[in-house]
Design brief:
Elements: E1 4-10, E2 19-25, E3 28-34, H1 47-50, H2 52-57, E4 66-68, E5 74-76, H3 79-97, E6 102-106, H4 114-127, E7 132-134, H5 141-151, E8 159-160, E9 167-171, H6 175-178, H7 188-197, E10 201-205, E11 218-220, H8 227-240, E12 253-254, H9 256-263, H10 268-275, H11 279-291, E13 295-299, H12 301-304, H13 309-322, E14 332-333, E15 350-354, E16 361-363, H14 372-377, E17 386-390, H15 394-397, H16 401-408, E18 413-417, E19 430-432, H17 445-448, E20 454-456, H18 472-484, H19 488-515, H20 530-535, E21 540-543, E22 560-561, H21 565-569, H22 571-579, H23 583-586, E23 591-595, E24 622-624, H24 626-632, E25 639-643, E26 648-655, E27 663-665, H25 680-684, E28 711-717
Parallel strand pairs: 6-7, 6-17, 9-10, 9-13, 10-11, 12-22, 17-18, 18-19, 23-27, 24-26
Antiparallel strand pairs: 1-2, 2-3, 4-5, 4-19, 8-14, 15-16, 20-21, 23-28, 24-27, 25-26, 25-28
Length: 718
């Protein structure tokens, strides 16, 4: 009889990277538990971590390349045939229509896979297309644009030092469910309880009383899309009352006088009606934040996916700076990861080129995905005629998904690197499925860089992959080699690069990164190496976050730009909305503002094929406040039609004062009722797609990020 064995790894399903202890016998997973010896997560685990075994065993998961037949069915083909067909079709389309005729979309799971993080950029460069998109522009793009403008690099993102904070202001985030996002912090409920036990204060600002708000000392409802106004008013109070104190940051911060001048126009009394928060409450919040021994403001996806997302993220940073809470214990700090991604990814640039149809700006080489459908559907030079998707499902995750769904059906060719035939990949002609997450080694490079404590942990493969399978990085390397071989010289170079990278493998490249990283000491020194990391199966604790400025800054002069022109210019839009007729009262009684919501037993669109995660009552419900339900004659359990400019959907109603009056909420990532998908469990619990009614024309004009929150809708009885 086979012996039981215990395997330790970091969960790669979300940003929390919780330590897992997996007990297996042969090829069978017996149980998955939290790793109590993990120095970061300390035994915490959420339901998604246990569902890793469902992903691994899923009968719907593709394990070999598949080609869609003219009749719409799928046939298995060899890897060589798949690689050759993808490369040939992409080269042919670029030869006939130009390089930009091939578009690329990279989904969220890609950054959870170290092999993809390493190999995808080189593959994308080989295609030399400007039509590159990712999930960033329906998520954290405003964070990155603000960081680039203020600190010099789009990935230089400050993280709340939540374990030492005494005042934690959470805006548009639900870290109890997400366990942090752009703040890797597993077991957030425990961390927040510890904050309150040590006398700290937790304040949550959100249009919904979230799971995090339920733990807070204070929850403030705010009208969707008005967070920038609240922050401007708080800054107004601090400057007006002489409460600004940059501390040591003053020596390398520019623009304090400019910021003081611009916030003068936003006293709390002027913005109270717009935000729905009383002027006195705003002033008190500002004073308490400034007076706290160690305060940090954290604004996440709810701030980013609105019309003034970039402005809001800039002002979050500004609030932390002018109170001296950036780069200090208990404030917003910069982790020191064992592998520094700042050295490996572009610092960023905004607007080096723009999208062909609407003129939306690129950032760091990517265009906003809100433009993808129109770039496929609009004829003319540069029209996207082929698409490669990587671990993404933009039909469900980007605005006006129905329009994108229709656009994908018009493509001459589509290839997908994915493990499922889902709402997006059903349009592909070829699907190249990589190995599952338990079949390859992994290292959470991006999330250690965003962690609330400096740690390092390596995840070895639990199961050996079948012989006729490929890892993500091997797929990209093979495609890159074929696409680069346009001349004999290029072919020689491509084969050489292929040989080097195959020889090193993921482990070899990771070892070099550790040796030459912040904790390493070169090839022959005694610093951090992969061997040392592997020897620590539960992970290594590298200590709490430490002050890192000004040395960590990427600006040319090593100074913080508190009021960069890119961001102060955008205040023209902010002031215009405030100067218009009172927007809050102009909203008709029939019009409501739609927001999304995050759920613990869900993960965007791709964990709904797990039976254990879909058990219990239906979760894809429309939350509506009792006052709004009563006014519109809606009762609990009714099915109502949600109508926006772009479309409509029908959802069951859940009446709750969890949302503020005038606001309705649907979770994102559902809508598994489209024909042709092969997700048996998800089809039994389809829900509806929030993004069938979000509007691709609603964007943050500063960077093109989709404004998915606060979408005007009307309700009708179904």
């Amino acid at each position: 009889m086979l012996e039981e064995r215990r395997h330790y790894r970091a969960c790669n399903l979300c940003e929390a990277i919780c330590g897992l202890e997996i007990t297996a016998r042969g090829e069978e997973i017996l149980r998955i538990e939290g790793d109590r010896q993990d120095p970061f997560s300390r035994g915490y685990i959420c339901p998604k971590g246990v569902a890793l075994q469902d992903l691994h065993n899923d009968p719907n998961r593709l394990r070999h390349p598949a080609r869609r037949t003219p009749g719409g069915s799928w046939e298995r083909i060899s890897w060589e045939a798949a690689f050759d067909e993808v490369a040939t079709r992409l080269r042919d389309i670029q030869a006939r229509y130009g390089r930009n005729a091939v578009a690329i979309y990279q989904g969220n799971p890609a950054v959870h896979n170290f092999g993809t993080v390493l190999s995808f950029p080189s593959f994308a460069r080989t295609l030399k297309t400007k039509n590159i998109y990712s999930a960033s522009s329906v998520d954290q793009l405003p964070h990155m644009v603000a960081a680039h403008a203020m600190f010099g690099h789009g990935l230089l993102l400050p993280v709340p030092d939540v374990d030492r904070a005494s005042f934690f202001l959470v805006m548009g985030a639900n870290p109890v469910v997400s366990n942090g996002s752009l703040m890797t912090a597993p077991g957030m409920s425990r961390r927040l309880e510890a904050l309150r036990r040590r006398g700290g204060r937790l304040v949550v600002v959100d249009p919904r009383r979230t799971e995090t708000a339920a733990l807070a000392d204070q929850h403030l409802f705010i009208r969707p899309g008005t967070d920038a106004y609240l922050l401007l008013a708080m800054l107004h109070v601090l400057f007006a009352e002489g409460r600004v104190n940059l501390g040591r940051l003053a020596a390398f911060t520019d623009g304090v006088e400019i910021l003081a001048a611009v916030v003068r126009e936003f006293p709390p009394a002027r913005i109270a009606d717009l935000t729905g928060i009383a002027a006195q409450t705003i002033a008190t919040l500002a004073r308490e934040f400034a007076a706290a021994p160690a305060a940090v403001c954290y604004g996440r996806v709810g701030l980013s996916i609105q019309a003034f997302g970039t402005t809001a993220q800039w002002l979050v940073n500004a609030l932390n700076i002018v109170t001296g809470n950036l780069d200090r214990e208990g404030g917003a700090m910069f982790p020191k990861a064992a592998l520094d991604p700042l050295e490996r990814f572009t610092a960023g640039h905004l607007g080096a080129w723009k999208s062909r149809v609407r003129g939306l700006p690129e950032f760091a080489g990517e265009l906003p995905v809100a433009a993808l459908a129109e770039e496929i559907l609009t004829p003319g030079e540069g029209q996207a005629r082929a698409l490669v998707t990587v671990a993404g499902n933009p039909v469900l995750s980007t605005p006006n998904g129905k329009r994108l769904d229709a656009a994908l059906a018009t493509l001459e060719f589509m290839a997908a690197v994915d493990i499922y035939i889902n709402e997006t990949t059903r349009h592909a002609h070829i699907i190249l499925p990589p190995t599952g997450s338990l079949e390859h080694e992994n290292y959470a490079a991006i999330f250690h860089h965003l962690a609330a404590r400096n740690t390092v942990k390596y995840s070895p493969a639990l199961f050996a992959p079948a012989s006729d399978t490929r890892h993500d990085w091997q797929i990209f390397l093979e495609l890159e080699t074929r696409l680069a071989s346009r001349t004999p010289f290029e072919s020689l170079k491509a084969q050489f690069r292929r040989g080097v990278r195959l020889g090193l493998g993921v482990d070899g490249m990771l070892d070099l990164a550790f040796r030459f990283g912040p904790y390493g000491s070169g090839l022959f020194g005694d610093g951090l190496t992969l061997a040392k990391v592997k020897a620590a199966a539960h992970g290594l604790d590298l200590g709490p976050l430490q002050p890192a400025l000004p040395g960590r800054l990427w600006t040319k002069d090593k100074r913080i730009a508190l009021a960069p022109k890119l961001l102060t210019r955008d205040l023209t839009r902010v002031k215009k909305r405030l100067a218009d007729a009172d927007v809050s009262r102009a909203q008709s009684n029939e019009e409501l503002l739609l927001i999304g919501r995050r759920q613990l037993r869900s993960n965007n669109s791709w964990m709904h094929n797990s039976e254990r995660l879909t058990r219990g009552k239906a979760r894809c419900t429309l939350l509506i406040h009792p006052e709004d339900a009563r006014r519109q004659g809606i009762r609990a359990g009714d099915r109502v039609k949600v109508v926006s400019r772009v479309g409509e959907l029908v959802a069951p109603v859940e009446i709750s004062d969890e949302v503020m009056p005038g606001v309705v909420s649907l979770p994102h990532g559902w809508g598994h009722d489209r024909p042709g998908i092969q997700l048996d469990v998800a089809r039994r619990h389809p829900g509806v797609s929030l993004n069938d009614v979000t509007d691709e024309q609603l964007v943050d004009e500063a960077c093109g990020n989709a404004a998915l929150s606060g979408v005007p809708v009307r309700l009708k009885r179904a």
